[in-house]
Amino acid sequence: MERASGKETINVLRRLIAYSGKIFHFSRDIVTHISGQRRKPRISTAAVVKSSLVLFWARMGSSNAWERVGRARFWQGWLQEPTFSADTLGRVHALLDTDGLRQGIHDVYQRLKRNKALPDIYGLGVVVLDGHESHASYLRHCPGCLQRTIHCEGGERIQFYHWQVTLLLLSGAPLGGEAVRLFLDHEPQWPGEDEVETALRLLARVIPAYPRAFDLVLADALYAKASFFNYLLARGKHALVVLKEERRNLYQDVAGLFDHVAPQQGRYRSRQCCWWDFPDLLSWPQVQAPVRVIRSLETYAVRRQLDKQDDPQSSDWIWVTTLSPTQVPVERAVHWGHQRWDIENYGFNDLANEWHSDHVFKRDPGAIECFLLVAFLAYNIFHAFLARNVKPAARQSKTQIFWAKLIAAELYGDLTPAGMPP
Questions:
Q1: Hey, what's the torsion of the CAs at 219, 222, 224, 230, to 10 degrees?
Q2: 199, containing H or E segment
Q3: pLDDT tens readout for residues 259-318
Q4: Which residues of 143-290 form beta strands (DSSP E)?
Q5: Domain ranges for the chain
Q6: Among 348, 216, 359, which residue's Cα sits nearest to residue 292?
């Protein structure tokens, strides 16, 4: 923090850039790995990626909004070359090398891991796997769009949309710090395939790139398939997946035991829980190992706004996992089962509502993929900066959007409106 003329000025953007350079060697290492398909480019790939990064850090929401601050003095020092148009930003992203962007995300992970900023959770590395619709339209589409028929009052309409499967790394909180979540990668879903097929293609790329980053994969009920479990088992990984399908033999077998086996009493946060734990089940022979089913019946109260009375509520959760009771007690398994929602609460919702990642900066499948990878890179660096570089006293009572607005204010503060003296 700097103080000038009795007013407190926080140069968040410059501190964030300094942090990314000192810790991740961003301009020296990460940007130099990213290339494109252009021949003899007038505008460097590094300048385009740096500009896109600031676009997301400042939460500008569109390339046109980013272009409006192109006259800010900040860019001269950050890019070391002239700025360019919004059309150029989108066009170059359509030609970027995705491998270089993924390598940059990996470099951020690797440096944080070496600095012990990503401790395991109860001794295991944990990731969340889930699919997400980035955007949809009835009118505009590109060669990478999926299609579905929507039944409306006026008849059936064809909707075009993009769907990606994403992997989010969870971590514990370092001593005296807060937990950092990192987006590791994503994979677009292709026409004619289901989400699990897309997820397996994603894992086939991520596991060799991050061989020791995670031991356990959390996923929703869609991933309760033998092919998914066997794929992870063959690579020394475990799965913990929501179990909902009542037609399954596994579900029917354990459902018949709930009334005959006394539950274990427990607690998850403020909820009173009844836990059932059934290990070494062989009711799913398609999986190449015994599985374990855990049920958590949770009761809690929600205060009604109208009469301020507590309204009793309950929720019933069932998971299937390859983790044994000796590896993970039921309490930890329940905790991880609920952490699956981190990818929604801290990932997809945050990216769409605050980072504007659902905006189509350029309607091109390559550009859509690259903009999202840059958003992941910006997200990872930004959250590492807040957690590891900003003191807890400075973070207290301030939301993440507060810091983003300070970044945007630095850019707008460099501008002098036309007709006004500098």
A1: -80
A2: helix 195-209
A3: 899 999 999 999 999 999 999 999 999 999 999 999 999 999 888 888 888 888 999 999
A4: 146-152, 155-170, 182-188, 216-219, 238-242, 264-268, 271-281
A5: 2-220+340-413, 239-339
A6: 216
